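seq/struct pair 1
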Amino acid sequence: MSRTAFLFPGQGSQRPGMGRALRDAFPESRAVFEEADDVLRESLSTLCFEGPEEDLRRTRNTQPAMLTVSYAAWRAVAVRGAGPDMAAGHSLGEYSALVALGGLSFADALRLTRRRAEFMQEAVPEGEGAMAAVLGLSAETVAEVASEVTGRGEGLVEPANFNGGGQVVIGGHTAAVSAAGEELKARGARRVLPLPVSAPFHTRLMEPAAARLSAELDAIPFRDLAAPLWTNVDAAPVRTGAQAREALRRQVASPVRWEETLRGMGAAGAGAFVEIGQGRVLTGMVRKVLPDASAFAVSDPAGVGRVQELLPEPVASLS
């Protein structure tokens, strides 16, 4: 029998207005936004609903905001009886997945993502780091070019996300990312798209952030999970709180192995993938990597209704 996987998006899908329809439609989602405002002692909900976009794109705001919208969507789904057989989150989304699976409290995840964002931004001064999505080349070619550019002394650049479907994200020093982009286009890349982020996430330049975050992770209680979590860093499932904490510790300065994660989940029986939170980026990735699987996104009340339609006999609620 086909199994259901829930996926939680990361940074990059944010936009003003996100989550507002969920807040208006579902009291359980409204409570999530109220809790986020209380925990952070600021109106994160207003930033999600109204922007401005420039503030929402700041890493220290984006990470807790995306977590909050994902959890608001999750609560609307969970209280109606739907839940996953397995889950994964892309980068930041791994925190959302852990909250949904009971491994972290929402309040603790909010505090962790705020600190994670601050540490990641402070690891590389603004303007000195960049990321770009490379379309249409193999992961091997992208890694080869990144290594060549780094070896020439133009700064560090390396693969940061292996997303599948012919997309690899590179990150590193701004000049090195630019030089690698030009070389990749010369090698036949269909496009090289700069990403709207302010630091080179999931590269070795994040090692200072990983060291600082490690102490924060050790101070937070983690619980065992209600279903397997497929981690970014190993593209393999974990079930204990200790394993989940260690995966988050290693994740900051390591590539996101998303294509391997999706293929592993498919091999484990997942035939339906439900993206929980803002945007449809992960839904598109599933369709490219696993074209025979079904995939759809839940970011508004219509999406919540679709979960109920497509999962007539859901697993026990994880709410």
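seq/struct pair 2
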Amino acid sequence: MTAVPRIELAAGYSIARIVNGCWQLSPGHGGGPRSKREALATFSRQVEHGYTTFDCADIYEGTEELVGRFRDNLPDPGSIQVHTKCVPDKRALATLTDGQVDAMIDRSRRRLRTERIDLVQYHWWDYEVPGVERLIDRLLAAQSAGRIRCIGVTNFDTPHLEAMVEAGAPIVSVQAQYSLLDRRPERALGGFCAERAIGVLAYGVLAGGFLSDRWLGSEPPVAMNRSEVKYRLIVDEVGGWNGLQSLLRMLRGIADRHTTSVAAVAARWALDRPSVGAIILGTGRRARIGGRKASLGLALDDRDFEALNACLGRLGTPPGEPYEIERDAAGPHASIIRTELQEAGA
């Protein structure tokens, strides 16, 4: 059995380098288990094989409750690590109060059935709206009181992350979209995180499934779930469907040399990025243990990287900082993002 490598995010706190992502388990994202019972069985199989770290969010409807139920039924609930997010609604940012932040944290604790959350990652929709310092202060207070172990951020750009770190915020991780199709973290974020020992938790490493054998030689999809729409927009940013096909053909050649899959090569590439502490792979209808083992057991060589770099040079990557184009209210990426989800997740 391939051992699942781990990385220490903070002193005495380690996580698996492949994290079980729960975004797909919330309504509308597609690909999740057909029932809660099936999801819990998938969780069990993942943990049995060493994938003990889970990523959910207060705005991923139903996911905190599901992970909490699973955790509560384990012989040793402390044997898994659970990460969640604190994401105030965009329209509520300007009026966010201490009490509201405290209530959000306590709600996540109740759902997750734990006194102390391992990692809370916060998000701020609009940098022009003041108030993020209040959120940080309340998270620090919760950490001091033992309600949170570690603090991270999600979808922050480099300047704002740097400003918070320079102000003394003890950020241990930043969750960022990072894949062969989206290498925005390589412009500045990755270097800053490497310097400050902040772990990048990379999501979207398979681009919603587009970086897999399923789409090699196929026509573009017509009907798509929200996840596929999100990553199809990224595909369009870097060369469109023809560009994706050229990348998939190259990945298939590398996969053939190593007797593995396109997805395994794409995941291994992300794991090998110097700033990446762990990658987040979605929990679907199967535990996909074989695919995860293939990624962990794969060693890309100089020939592989030469082919990858040549193809990526022709494709390019989306413009700007991580999550920059997603913040452009007039752009197509923002049009599919829901910014008022606290009520749905209540």
